[in-house]
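Morning!

This is the sequence you dropped in the shared folder:
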Amino acid sequence: MKVNVSQKDIDNGIGGDDNKCALALAVKRAFNKGVDTTDVAVYYDREDTDEKKLLIRVENEYYSDAHIDKYDHLNNFIDWFDFGILGEDGCEPFKFNIDTSLWKNIGSYIKTRTSMKLLKLWVLRRQLKLLK
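The structure's back. Tokens below.
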């Protein structure tokens, strides 16, 4: 999935808000979600270690470094955006890709501590959709 973070996203985004930051606005547009939806969130998971891990959630799908081609740039962008650093040395429009393939998402579910029971239900749901 191609995501385009536009100048409009940067201008309209709210720093520190995982549902309304510039990245969340761009992801909502890429996944055809409404601007006011809470189905999309961009946040840091810090439960396992002191190290922050960027996650993008779209409904019940979680995307992390394994899925995002410019993962390090996204981390920097969030810092720049939250601290209001704009222009050449900070927030500028850019594009990135999220790999939404089935097997990468299964790995993401495991990495984000989803129980095996939920994982099995998720796989079963996907298999049933493929049979239709």
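Headline: Residues 2-100 form one domain.

More detail when I'm at my desk.
O.
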